[in-house]
Amino acid sequence: MPRAYVPLPARRPYACRVHQLSPIADRAAAPATLPQITAGDLAWRPATLDDVPRVTALNNTIAEADGAPYRETEDETREELGAAWRDLEHDSLLGFDADGDLRVTAFVAWFPGDTTTVRTFAFGGVHPERRGEGIGREVLAWQLARARQILAASGKQLPARIGTYAEDDDPASKHRLYLHAGLEPRRYFSDLKRPLTGDAPAIPQVELTGSLRLVPFSPELDDAIRLAHNDAFRDHWGSQPQTMEQWTNGRSEFAPEWSYAVVDDAPDVAALLADEATDASTRAALDAGAPLVVAYALNSRFEADFAVRGYTFGYTGILGTRRAYRGRKAALAALAASMRAFADAGMEAAVLDVDTENPSGAHGLYASLGYTKEHGSTMYSIEL
């Protein structure tokens, strides 16, 4: 699946209105039964982990046909489909033709850590040779119906979202399909590239002040980085807290040797505990004397994408700064160290994705560092 399917940054637009919401079961309006898919005369069944090779192959066939800037590995697919909270029996469908070849995938994902907005996401696709038969329309109807069932069953009296993504270069028919189904363009993302070779600008040297210290990623800091991430993205639209199970899922391409954190060796614990904006999990960590990570850059090496893009690169998947530490260049220090690690490993570029309406002004920061847009994508959603 495109990496854009990983849900990205978010504000808390509805927190003050939760008490005004009708019950989630009413808003979701879940059907008692799911619609049948009759178009294309295909045989349907749920996916299993044994289907990982064929799902990966179909995803890559679709990506190649649509000119997508990525390819998928079987390890990535296995992590996505094998997450502990996934229910493939009820949340997936595979469509096979008369010869037994996979021609369609349909998945609906949800996330256990959601606390301010309960979310579902639809993803999948139709083989390019089977487009134009009405299959995609019926598959999307099934996905939306299943998403409504999941939301209703969650019992969470929160704002709710059914979302999906489309690359800007995807066929116009895909965008029209989403619009026709009632999904609205809600958020726009830019895929940015920053050259590291030739006449590329020098990677900035960032001096940290006070008791802030840049350190390489280590497993011992992993949970502290997760807590920093949950704090950093509390005011970003679409973001929800991640459990440790979610946080560590999907790391087949993770490059710990390219990843960094900034820790505060002498945090003002009293001030942080007195600040009502400090979340409960961070309070617990401070009380326990755990390391306080204040910024981080976690990076990956997507080798399957190198030939597609035409250059080698390091990918910054997650970058952030605790809200209390913004303005101290901590994330910039982690990003600069990441770029230097990419360059030292012989990578030709640094790549990342950003929400174009990111409230921390990240888009401007990346532009100042030499990042420019290469691709884009749109998140479509139904807000309930």
From TrEMBL:
One of its GO terms (molecular function) is acyltransferase activity, transferring groups other than amino-acyl groups. It comes from the Bacteria. Gene3D superfamilies: 3.40.630.30. Residues 42-207, 256-384 form the N-acetyltransferase domain. This is Acetyltransferase, GNAT. It comes from Agrococcus baldri. The lineage of its organism: Bacteria, Bacillati, Actinomycetota, Actinomycetes, Micrococcales.
